[in-house]
Amino acid sequence: MKTLIALLASLSLASLALASSPAVSDISQKDLQAVVTAKSAVIFDVNGTESYNEGHIPGAIDFIAHRDDIAKLLPADKAALVVAYCRNEQCTAYRQAAHAAIALGYTNVKHFAPGIDGWVSSGAPTEK
Fold this sequence. Notes:
The chain is built from seven helices and five strands. With 128 residues, the protein is α/β, with parallel strands linked by helices.
């Protein structure tokens, strides 16, 4: 019985943590491609350095390699667009970068849900 109560308490706390997580809306591929072309956003790749070195969305920053310095990498304008992505639609690692930007006061934080897999499969260019 104690185990069941502990399990239910843990699940309740996890639900509260998820509910209090800031919502991050998605950005479409079309909109992200326009942002990449215009170089008008900070884009974080949260796939890890090895994956980043194999290819990433042009202009993206390796979040894992720079996670301790992101405040220095973000613009002074807290309304500036910040985009985070990881591997694919099932990946949730993007939340690390998105929530770090939100914690620093950024208000226009987006998620590119298809991730690098979707970017590559669409035929969009990557850089190394």
